[in-house]
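Our platform keeps sequence and structure together, in a single record for each protein. Because each token names a local backbone shape, the row as a whole describes the fold. One such record is reproduced below, unchanged from the form in which we store it:
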Amino acid sequence: ETGGASSGSFGRQEIYLVGQDGSATGILFVDGTNFHAIWATDGKHMLYSVADPGDSYKAALWYADSDGDRNGDGRRKMGIQTIVDKCTFATVTIAYCAVPREMPAGGGSTTSLITAYDDVYRLDVSTGNAHLVAIPAADTQMFSLSVSSDGSFLYYADGVGRLNVIRLE
């Protein structure tokens, strides 16, 4: 769980981490605005996106080992421009993300500014490796991603809310 963010210098935020028992577990310092995060099932790893002021406020995806008082030393830029709302964890270390083919300037501030179609990338957060795994047969934007329990299918909603599936393996 994440608590409120307080801004320090412009574009730098302090994210207060809260354990499942409600106790404070540390502070994560992030560079950028519009912080959003998802947690791995173990509650110790997260993906987050921020609008990167150094790159025209395009959304940038980051990984953080959020176990304990990490203060940002366990974070890694993933080299992917997408918002974390387009990602899902399949395992503790593997995530899949819908990545727009072009991220517009200011795209880190709102999903409505992102109009490009998406491709699917597999992220290994333990190594920082990301690679393209699927280009949907029809050009589409992808939302609400989830992976089947056996890891062989990726489900997503398209731009009009229809459920779609991609075989992963």
In short: Confidence is low (pLDDT under 50) at residues 1-9. DSSP finds no helices and 14 strands in the chain. The two ends are 32 Å apart (CA to CA).
